Amino acid sequence: MKKQEVVRKMQYAGSWYESDPDLLKDHIVKALNEAENRAVTSSEKKTGACLAMLPHAGLLYSSKGIADFFTVLPIKTSNILIIAPSHYAHIPPDTFTTADFTVAETPLADLRVMPLNEILPGRVMHLDKKSLELEHAIEMFLPFCANLQLQSKKDITIGMCLVSDVSSEKSTDMLSEAILEATDDGQILNGQTLIIASSDFTHYGRRFGYTPFSDASHGLHKSEISEIEEQVLRHDRKYAEKFASGDIGELLSLKEKEQPSICGFASGLIVSNIAKKLGMTGQIRNQYTSNSISGPSSDFVSYCSILWR
Predict the structure, then answer these.
(1) Of 111, 112, 150, 286, whose CB is crowded by the most CB atoms within 10 A?
(2) Percent of the chain with pLDDT over 90
(3) DSSP H or E run through 279
(4) CA distance 111 to 143
(5) Which ranges in 113-221 belong to alpha helices (H)?
(6) Which regions of 124-272 does DSSP assign to beta strands (E)?
(7) How many CB atoms within 10 Å of residue 125?
(8) What is the DSSP letter of 64?
(9) Which neighbouring-strand residues pair with 197?
(10) For the chain, which domains are there?
């Protein structure tokens, strides 16, 4: 008897990105073309990136960073695992939250879903279908995956899981090993399976309750906003460099000391640690803020794309 399909329905089409397939495809193609044009050095143009840490805001903001990865994928790519934070549901620390979805909808095409609920070790797995259904930090990548499926004319299978917090280097190792156990490190190294850590970087301003570089009691002039943006980008570059190099201990120390507002910190730790275990080299490919897209505001989000080969 054929197993019944369990479908993850689109939650953000028409609000966080275009619901019309033609408009969505145009947006993605434009983002990919712009990413290719931004690539200047041979290392930036080199294909074969297998791991990434990428933004997940609405596609107006995140597609610039996501496209940096999707322009340099290995030809063999057929599986893409997304590890994201949970913005809408409380989930336990030091575990992966997943569900039994078999199909994920997008306006462009449906995607097969790898059964992480069956292949992740039980010691690190927590099941919660609603949290995955609601999570935009998963969904923002699905249109790019569907576009890849259409362009490559082969099925792209996605994996979806959430991680809220990683409490120690030992826990980071445990979760990294669980992913490698479930996905096969050989398939990662040859580019068949890719892993994305879903994360925006600093969320700055009174709206986010995070204003270490300014006085939150009054409004800011345009020149002050620009200065703060530069401080935030420098602050985030410090973290991005440590993610890229796999400095897990220092990242955990900085997190405890500074309490950064990087929402996918845990997913970044895991993917960075996997890259280190597999001997991959990280590169910061892009940094920008929401203000570069929508204009100056004292409330803004910083984005960064990091790729490992």
Answers:
(1) 111
(2) 89
(3) none
(4) 10
(5) 116-119, 129-134, 136-139, 142-152, 169-183, 185-189
(6) 125-127, 157-162, 193-198, 203-204
(7) 18
(8) H
(9) 53, 83
(10) 7-308 (3.40.830.10)
Measured in residues, the chain has a length of 309
- How far is the C-alpha of 108 from the C-alpha of 166, rounded, in Å? 34
Residue 70 · residue 300 · CB < 8 Å: no
Structural contact between residues 37 and 67, judged by C-beta atoms closer than 8 angstroms? no
Say which residue the tokens 């620390």 belong to.
Answer: 93
CA distance 43 to 172: 29
CA-based nearest residue to 94, from 160, 158, 176, 159: 176
Evaluate whether 53 touches 304 at the Cβ level (below 8 Å). yes
Residue 97 in tokens: 């939250």
Residue 47: phi, psi to the nearest 5? -80, 175
pLDDT band at 221 (very low <50, low <70, confident <90, very high): confident
Give the 3-state secondary structure of residue 52: strand
What amino acid is encoded at 174 in this protein?
A: M
Q: Enter the tokens of residue 113.
A: 């879903």
The predicted-structure confidence for 114-135, as pLDDT tens digits, reads as follows 999 999 999 999 999 999 999 9
